[in-house]
């Protein structure tokens, strides 16, 4: 796999530095890192006894839940749009 056209961006997530390599812009990668950081802080503030592993898993579960909701909404809107075209 070639590293051509890939951006290397360092982000801080919940006190840890991560180097993320991706084709997305540096700004996009930083935004993703900030969203993960903020979600981890939110969950941690409600459950301060969670260890970092459980916190990371709950953050991932929340992110996938949000993704599925948006995906379902997009599919509904696409169906509505298709009905209008027919």
TrEMBL record:
Subunit details: Homodimer. Interacts with FtsZ.
Keywords, in A-Z order: Cell cycle, Cell division, Cytoplasm, Septation
Protein's cellular compartments: Cytoplasm
UniProt function note: Activator of cell division through the inhibition of FtsZ GTPase activity, therefore promoting FtsZ assembly into bundles of protofilaments necessary for the formation of the division Z ring. It is recruited early at mid-cell but it is not essential for cell division.
SUPFAM superfamilies: Cell division protein ZapA-like
Gene3D superfamilies: 6.10.250.790
Pfam families in the record: ZapA
InterPro entries the record matches: Bac_CellDiv_Activator (IPR053712), Cell_div_ZapA-like (IPR007838), Cell_div_ZapA-like_sf (IPR036192)
GO biological process: cell division
Protein name as it appears in the record: Cell division protein ZapA
């Amino acid at each position: 796999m070639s590293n051509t056209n890939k951006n290397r961006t360092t982000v801080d997530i919940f006190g840890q530095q991560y180097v993320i390599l991706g084709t997305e812009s540096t700004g996009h990668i930083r935004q993703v890192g900030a969203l993960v950081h903020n979600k981890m802080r939110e969950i941690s503030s409600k459950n301060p006894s969670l260890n970092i592993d459980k916190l990371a898993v709950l953050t991932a579960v929340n992110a996938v839940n949000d993704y599925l909701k948006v995906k379902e909404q997009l599919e509904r809107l696409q169906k509505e749009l298709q009905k209008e075209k027919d």
